[in-house]
């Protein structure tokens, strides 16, 4: 069968075009850094670098889960509330309020496991609403967005939990090879998610579910299980991020932990170039997207832009970054 | 609303469900609480919630096209500030200014979505930030008093033929919205765009223009809600409106409209908004009974649970959705 | 007659890859022009450029005496061009009537006149010999019905030029005849038609002139009357076509083979009432029937997409009840569905991933996709099926319709299935590739594969099937072995009335 | 005059709280509930979740339920006027807690009974006065503002800024919002300390942000109390303890325990006493000199 010659490019899978499109967000990122070097006082310092990385860590952790959810065509508004729940649970666990634990090491270990597991379960609950009851993701996760923080507040009666437990707080205050632990955590999670999408069967199946759900089902992909899985991962990562936040603050305040996180995370995903309609998951993009958002925030703060004006600038920059990203995609 | 009367598809059935739930909740309140059906409660309920029904209407149209408008709360806040500042000139300057601010925001939303091809979620998220920013700048971070001399406060605070004026405004908007969606050709176009923009384009629809107008309308309605906000409470409030978009989205969805677009009902959206608003009102009355003094925290847990029950019922009724 | 449309030297490239490199096309007023070419030759791209769905890179277009450059389909529609695009384009949740009148709704005092709209739609639909409720959303109907609605919409548009991109690919002969009658009537009123298709008989039956495209260029244009089919095909392919031989096996000669998959009195809903059929090892079983006779839905039940409500399915002698496609797949069953846009492609995904989607779990090595094997398989199928693409990493949505269909076929072939259900296997596939694909199926069957081939093309069934089961109104009314197969027998069985 | 209150054995009392998302508000609500329970009154409690408009609706639903008196912690000065007026029209006396309403539009004694609370402007002023006296050469101030647009943020800024500018020699190098929250306050402080390494004073509009700032200072490798003076308002237990420890230099109290005073004022009103238009809360001031002795009394 000699139809037209099919030129098959092998090996050189990354064409220059793809590279440019990847650089869309990256260009915005580099531009911001250059701008800061020129304008912001004391920008080029190790400590500044550190501050920005540690502050962005929780956004990246949550946004990674969000990327997976969004790539299946869903969205998860409940992440902030799940952070609050896990943030409320952890101190209750290691301070023995849930049930008395003698062994401190065990208590601290459980303080990691229980909150993350609970958050994962609640994530699975979101997934169940989406799959089993065919409730649309925005609304399904709106339920926990509203009720979740309430649950955390009820558990703590709205009160602040203050603690000093270095072994627990290691995930936010510790250092690994001179790098803050939460930054290491963020990098590991992003790398795992990247590998999941890029190299595994599951990753491709996730994208297929987001790209065309009916077709995915017809090729035997367990659509419902996959959806529940991504919501569960999103929940678990939100739970983990909640732990980082409270560990950093030596205090857990159910009223504010994770407040507004869903919007930051979604913005990071969008700026990073994943479509909100699903079918694509750009983890590196999400990482850079989160960094862009963080840098914008830092730039505005450090240059003394008042909050009101900062909101407007931030809005413009988000639009601009997404626009550049899309332009690059089209080349 | 006429479409509500004879269920043709399972979608209609879901809409009937909202009406039934609404009726059940009213009955529950009337039987359980004194003064629940007192004119005072009904009138103040309508006066206050007219703002939310207005933004839910705009949201319904946006969602029918397959989009979303997260900026409504911010736009309402910004419009309330503009309206309050202009109300010193005359009542209609306040009214026009507030709506105008909403129109501008909606127009920008529409253009960013259609011309820059930025997804509605992001475009309107940015507009939410920008409109709060603008509101705070204009108002210098404080509430702006309206003028009590130009008659501006009549819009929000007075009654006409026994009904609060904001309720009349909302009624008018809903009738107009119903006419557009059900009785005008443009309603068919809006629905078809929600079915799939690319397809609609190939069918010869002016997709960009229609979408821009829909976002503009949503902005204008949010602006109108902002005018009522300023007039009813005597101040333009730059920090008000937080979470209104979620209330509106929930109302639309509870009204049986799919977020994927292409279908939806104006009447059921109104029912959805009233249902959710009533849940708040009932919680207040329940607290007043004194059996259980619900903390604010329990209230949000209950509200979440209520939403859950409603959407699950909805999903059960709308069995059609499960087919594919 | 004067020229209605003239397109000169049209060029267009996507991301640096040329799709059209100098195409010219001329249509006179009131004539029916055929546009033919292999899959990926650029036919659909050409008409999308004409109607403003794409913008051209170069060239000139004159229409109705003016230089035109439509910026959107809306504009070309107003300019007098009605178009049916290759992938059926209707608003799925809108009713049949609304779809037919979208953008030119009848009005009374500015308001929608629903009565006029409904009555008008009923009239048009009846003209096409369809019997459907015009108030139902079009998504409720089969691909064929939707195609008819799209056609009805286009022909009532009162245009000067009607463009149809493969309108008959999912229709059976009855509807094709109705369609052609309608077109001829419209032609008498001065309408010109541009007709794209892969079925030569239809082209000869309908068209007066033909334009042949190859590799994004016009290679020939002229009257169809004097041109032999062989010459036309040679022009299209740039080579000779292998003879279209009879591929089916005579069962008496080969003897009875063991049954692999058996359906007994299967039913679900109202569309599938009582279907019995058996698929044997190494056989191609055809499934024939008129539009809406329940063939596609039978396949869906068999594959576990829709729920089995009545009757039994057995695989290799054992009872089966597939609740999900994955269960059927586990038994080695594959389904190439009828509607590639809705049920087939994952548009943003690469050809590679689309092709191996069903195979992926088997390509897993320690949870990770074995890229080497994947590449090997993808490259092999791109070659054997002659899929025209820039690279395996190209998004499938960028392929021409026929090439997408080939990728979907490969999706199942690469899983090495034991039973393959194909709903309209050669839909949109050009004549050169069609023979090759049927041959390929034959070879696979000879190696033991059971094929269930749902087809509206009698010619195809007659050529390739070993036996044909005929459905009428959701009931299997006949089971014809090879030796009894003839057009007359099939038509008689299909028209069979059950009650 | 404001509507009268009959003398009764027990009352149905409304309390319209503005929000419950910070420890201060929670303490205030607790105090109100505890006092009502002690007196055996029925408390109808609503939470406006930070929305002035909802708070008006909440008050309206209390009016509909026929409460005897309404305690209102107004979210904002102007938008709550309609609530005050509606209650007056319905003959229900209103007592304002912790924030006042616009005096041009409504008057104590006429439209509502009285306002019980502290003076936010004065709080900012007291912090500034302390700083002016005890700066020890420190002069570059980072200000962590409360939620943008909220009246305590506006007033605490106004009182501080005006006083410190008048004192001379001080410079506010950065002033950004930390949303009254510990985490946000810390992040903003971290960023601002990078951009302004020379800053040596941090003035936070509440305890939560001040505690966040302390952890930011430590992360930047500096010593709170020595390199950088931290000043705060609210004076909760944790903050007062920080004053004892020396990490916070000084804090002005803003006591949320309104219950006793609120119900006492109500009782006085029922008896027919004349109530002054502003029942002032007396707020303590903690610094190194008195924190240790007084810390037991902090809320
Ligand atoms: N959006 C697009 N992006 C990239 N390439 C495209 C796009 N659309 C079409 N092409 C390429 O242009 C060429 C011509 O495609 P076209 O759809 O016009 O073919 P066709 O002649 O209609 O084929 P068929 O008979 O299979 O429908 C193909 O190689 C196709 O891959
Ligand atoms: N009289 C009819 N005319 C047109 N469509 C019909 C008719 N009756 C049923 N249909 C449609 O046909 C579909 C069921 O047929 P199904 O697709 O299973 O059969 P099929 O024989 O495969 O038809 P097709 O050739 O259209 O694929 C239903 O979606 C139904 O809406
Ligand atoms: Mg084509
Ligand atoms: Mg079929």
UniProtKB/TrEMBL annotation, chain A:
Q: Which CDD domains match?
A: TM_PBP1_transp_AraH_like (cd06579)
The yes or no answer to whether the keyword Acetylation is present is no
What membrane topology does this protein have? Multi-pass membrane protein
The regions listed as transmembrane in this protein's record are: 20-44, 56-85, 105-125, 137-156, 176-197, 228-248, 254-276, 283-302, 308-324
Q: Give GO cellular component annotations, separated by semicolons.
A: plasma membrane
Which GO molecular function, any one, fits this protein according to its record? Answer: transmembrane transporter activity
Q: Which Pfam families match?
A: BPD_transp_2 (PF02653)
What keywords are assigned to this protein?
Answer: Cell membrane, Membrane, Plasmid, Transmembrane, Transmembrane helix
Any idea where this protein resides? Cell membrane
Q: Which InterPro entries match?
A: ABC_transp_permease (IPR001851)
- Where is it mainly found? membrane
Q: Which domain of life is it from?
A: Bacteria
Listed name of the protein: Sugar ABC transporter permease
From TrEMBL, chain B:
Q: Name one GO molecular function term.
A: transmembrane transporter activity
Superkingdom of this protein's organism: Bacteria
Which Pfam families does this one have? BPD_transp_2 (PF02653)
Q: Where in the cell is it found?
A: Cell membrane
Major site of localization recorded for this protein: membrane
Transmembrane ranges, per UniProt, are 13-31, 52-85, 91-114, 121-140, 160-181, 213-235, 241-259, 266-284, 296-315
A single Gene Ontology CC term:
plasma membrane
Q: Which UniProt keywords apply?
A: Cell membrane, Membrane, Plasmid, Transmembrane, Transmembrane helix
Q: Kindly give the membrane topology term recorded for this protein.
A: Multi-pass membrane protein
Q: What is this protein called?
A: Sugar ABC transporter permease
Automatic annotation (TrEMBL), chain C:
Q: Name one Pfam family in it.
A: ABC_tran
Alphabetized, the UniProt keywords read:
ATP-binding, Cell membrane, Membrane, Nucleotide-binding, Plasmid, Repeat, Sugar transport, Translocase, Transport
Would the keyword ATP-binding be found if you checked this record's keyword annotation?
yes
From the UniProt record, list the coiled-coil ranges.
none
MF annotations from Gene Ontology: ATP binding; ATP hydrolysis activity
> Per its UniProt record, what SUPFAM superfamilies does this chain match?
P-loop containing nucleoside triphosphate hydrolases
Give the main localization category.
membrane
Q: How does it sit in the membrane?
A: Peripheral membrane protein
Gene3D superfamilies, alphabetized: P-loop containing nucleotide triphosphate hydrolases
Ranges for domain ABC transporter come to: 5-240, 256-498
Q: What GO cellular-component annotations does this UniProt entry give?
A: plasma membrane
- Where found in the cell? Cell membrane
Similarity-based family: Belongs to the ABC transporter superfamily.
* Name recorded for this polypeptide: Sugar ABC transporter ATP-binding protein
């Amino acid at each position: 069968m000699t139809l037209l010659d099919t030129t098959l490019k092998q090996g050189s899978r990354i064409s220059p075009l793809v590279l440019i499109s990847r650089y869309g967000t990256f260009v915005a990122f580099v531009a911001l850094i250059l701008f800061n070097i020129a304008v912001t006082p004391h920008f080029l310092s190790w400590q500044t670098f550190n501050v920005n990385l540690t502050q962005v860590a929780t956004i990246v952790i949550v946004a990674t889960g969000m990327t997976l959810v969004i790539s299946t065509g869903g969205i998860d508004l409940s992440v902030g509330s799940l952070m609050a729940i896990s943030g409320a649970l952890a101190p209750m666990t290691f301070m023995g309020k849930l049930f008395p634990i003698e062994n401190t090491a065990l208590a601290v270990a459980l303080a990691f496991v229980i909150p993350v597991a609970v958050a994962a379960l609640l994530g699975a609950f979101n997934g169940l609403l989406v799959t089993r009851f065919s409730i649309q993701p925005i609304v399904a996760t709106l339920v926990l967005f509203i009720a979740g923080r309430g649950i955390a507040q009820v558990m703590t009666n709205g009160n602040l939990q203050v603690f000093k437990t270095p072994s627990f707080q290691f995930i936010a205050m510790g250092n690994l090879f001179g790098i803050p632990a939460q930054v290491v955590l963020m990098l590991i999670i992003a790398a795992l998610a990247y590998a999941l999408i890029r190299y595994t069967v599951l990753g491709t199946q996730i994208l297929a579910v987001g790209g065309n759900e009916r077709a995915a089902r017809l090729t035997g992909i367990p659509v419902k299980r996959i959806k529940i899985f991504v919501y569960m991962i999103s929940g678990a990562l939100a739970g983990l991020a909640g732990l980082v936040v409270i560990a950093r603050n030596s205090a857990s305040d159910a009223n504010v932990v994770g407040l507004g996180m869903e919007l930051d995370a979604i913005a990071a995903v969008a700026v990073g170039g994943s479509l909100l309609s699903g079918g694509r998951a750009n983890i590196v993009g999400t990482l850079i997207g989160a960094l862009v958002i963080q840098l914008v925030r830092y730039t505005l703060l450090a240059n003394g832009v008042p909050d009101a004006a900062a909101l407007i600038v931030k809005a413009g920059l988000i639009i601009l970054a997404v626009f550049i990203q899309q332009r690059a995609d089209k080349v | 609303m006429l479409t509500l009367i004879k269920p043709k598809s399972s979608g209609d059935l879901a809409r009937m469900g909202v009406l039934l739930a609404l009726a059940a909740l009213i009955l529950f309140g009337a039987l359980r609480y004194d003064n629940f059906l007192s004119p005072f409660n009904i009138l103040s309920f309508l006066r206050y919630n007219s703002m939310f029904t207005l933004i839910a209407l705009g949201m319904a149209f946006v969602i029918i096209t397959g989009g979303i408008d997260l900026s409504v709360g911010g736009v309402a806040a910004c419009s309330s500030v503009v309206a309050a500042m202009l109300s010193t000139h005359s009542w209609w300057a306040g009214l026009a200014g507030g709506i105008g601010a909403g129109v501008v925001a909606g127009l920008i939303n529409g253009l960013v979505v259609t011309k820059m091809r930025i997804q509605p979620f992001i475009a309107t998220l940015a507009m939410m930030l920008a409109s709060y920013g603008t509101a705070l700048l204009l108002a210098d971070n404080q509430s702006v008093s309206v003028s009590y001399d130009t008659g501006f406060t009549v819009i929000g605070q007075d009654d006409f033929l026994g009904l609060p004026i904001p309720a009349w405004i909302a009624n008018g908007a809903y009738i107009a919205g119903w006419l557009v969606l059900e009785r005008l050709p443009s309603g068919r176009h809006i629905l078809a765009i929600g079915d799939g923009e690319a397809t609609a384009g190939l069918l010869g629809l002016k997709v960009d223009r229609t979408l821009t107008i829909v976002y503009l309308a949503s902005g204008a309605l949010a602006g109108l809600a902002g005018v009522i906000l300023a007039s009813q409470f005597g101040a333009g409030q730059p920090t008000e409106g937080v979470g209104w978009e979620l209330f509106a989205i929930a109302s639309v969805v509870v009204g049986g409209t799919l977020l994927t677009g292409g279908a939806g009902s104006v009447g059921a959206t109104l029912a959805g908004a009233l249902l959710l608003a009533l849940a708040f009102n009932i919680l207040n009355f329940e607290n007043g009974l004194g059996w259980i003094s619900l903390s604010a925290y329990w209230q949000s847990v209950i509200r979440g649970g209520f939403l859950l029950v409603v959407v699950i019922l909805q999903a059960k009724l709308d069995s059609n959705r499960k087919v594919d | 007659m004067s020229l209605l449309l003239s397109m000169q030297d049209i060029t267009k490239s996507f991301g640096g890859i040329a799709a059209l490199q100098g195409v010219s096309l001329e249509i006179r007023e009131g004539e029916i022009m055929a546009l033919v070419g292999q899959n990926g030759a650029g036919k659909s791209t050409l008409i999308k450029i004409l109607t403003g769905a794409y913008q051209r890179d170069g060239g000139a277009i004159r229409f109705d005496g003016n230089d035109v450059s439509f910026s959107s389909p809306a504009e070309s529609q107003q300019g007098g061009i009605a178009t049916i695009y290759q992938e059926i384009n209707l608003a799925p949740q809108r009713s049949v009537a609304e779809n037919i009148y979208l953008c030119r709704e009848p009005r009374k005092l500015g308001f929608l006149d629903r009565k006029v709209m409904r009555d008008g739609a009923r009239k048009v639909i009846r003209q096409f010999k369809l019997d459907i409720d015009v108030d139902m959303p079009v998504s409720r109907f089969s691909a064929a019905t939707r195609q008819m609605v799209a056609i009805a919409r286009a022909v009532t548009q009162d245009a000067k030029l009607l463009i149809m991109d493969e309108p008959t690919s999912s229709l059976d002969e009855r509807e094709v005849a109705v369609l052609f009658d309608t077109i001829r009537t419209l032609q008498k009123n001065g309408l010109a038609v541009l007709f794209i298709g892969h079925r030569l008989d239809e082209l000869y039956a309908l068209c007066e002139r033909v334009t042949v495209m190859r590799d994004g260029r016009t290679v020939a244009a002229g009257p169809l009357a004097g041109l032999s089919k062989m010459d036309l095909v040679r022009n299209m392919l740039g080579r000779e076509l292998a003879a279209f031989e009879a591929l089916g096996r005579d069962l008496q000669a080969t003897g009875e083979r063991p049954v692999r998959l058996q359906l007994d009195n299967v039913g679900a809903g109202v569309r599938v009432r009582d279907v019995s059929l058996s698929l044997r090892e190494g056989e191609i079983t055809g499934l024939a029937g008129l539009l809406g006779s329940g063939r596609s839905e039978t396949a869906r039940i068999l594959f576990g997409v829709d729920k089995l409500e009545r009757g039994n399915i057995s695989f290799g002698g054992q009872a089966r009840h597939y609740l999900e496609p994955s269960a059927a797949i586990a038994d080695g069953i594959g389904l190439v569905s009828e509607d590639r846009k809705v049920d087939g492609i994952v548009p943003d995904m690469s050809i590679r991933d689309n092709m191996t989607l069903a195979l992926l779990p088997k390509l897993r090595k320690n949870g990770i996709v074995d890229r080497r094997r994947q590449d090997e398989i993808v490259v092999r199928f791109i070659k054997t099926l002659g899929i025209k693409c820039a690279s395996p990493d190209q998004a499938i949505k960028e392929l021409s319709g026929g090439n997408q269909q080939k990728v979907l076929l490969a999706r199942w072939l690469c899983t090495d299935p034991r039973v393959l259900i194909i709903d309209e296997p050669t839909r949109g596939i050009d004549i050169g590739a069609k023979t090759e694909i049927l041959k390929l199926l034959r070879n696979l069957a000879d190696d033991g594969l059971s094929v269930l081939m749902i087809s509206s093309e009698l010619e195809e069934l007659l050529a390739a099937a070993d036996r044909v089961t005929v459905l009428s109104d959701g009931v299997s009314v006949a089971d014809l072995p090879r030796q009894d197969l003839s057009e007359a027998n099939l038509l008689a069985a299909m028209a069979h009335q059950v009650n | 005059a404001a509507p009268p209150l009959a003398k009764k054995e027990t009352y149905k009392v409304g309390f319209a709280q503005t929000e419950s998302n910070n420890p201060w508000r929670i303490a205030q609500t607790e105090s109100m509930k505890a006092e009502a329970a002690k007196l055996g009154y029925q408390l109808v409690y609503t939470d406006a979740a930070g929305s002035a408009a909802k708070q008006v609706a909440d008050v309206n639903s209390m009016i509909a339920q026929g409460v005897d008196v309404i305690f209102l912690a107004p979210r904002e000065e102007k938008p709550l006027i309609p609530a005050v007026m509606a209650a007056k029209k319905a003959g229900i006396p209103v007592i304002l807690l912790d924030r006042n309403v616009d005096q041009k539009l409504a008057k104590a004694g006429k439209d509502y009974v009285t306002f019980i609370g502290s003076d936010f402007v004065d709080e900012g002023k007291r912090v500034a006065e302390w700083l002016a006296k005890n700066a020890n050469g420190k002069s570059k101030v980072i200000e962590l503002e409360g939620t943008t647009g909220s009246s305590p943020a506006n007033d605490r800024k106004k009182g501080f800024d005006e006083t410190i500018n008048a004192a001379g020699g001080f410079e506010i190098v950065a002033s950004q919002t930390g949303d009254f929250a510990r985490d946000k306050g810390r992040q903003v402080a971290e960023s601002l300390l990078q951009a302004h390494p020379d800053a040596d004073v941090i003035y936070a509009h509440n305890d939560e942000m001040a505690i966040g700032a302390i952890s930011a200072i430590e992360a930047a490798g500096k010593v709170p109390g020595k390199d950088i003076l931290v000043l705060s308002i609210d004076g909760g237990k944790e903050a007062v303890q920080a004053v004892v420890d020396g990490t916070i230099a000084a804090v002005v109290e803003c006591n949320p325990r309104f219950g006793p005073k609120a119900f006492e004022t109500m009782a006085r009103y029922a008896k027919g006493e004349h109530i002054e238009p502003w029942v002032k809360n007396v707020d303590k001031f903690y610094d190194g000199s008195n924190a240790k002795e007084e810390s037991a009394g902090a809320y």
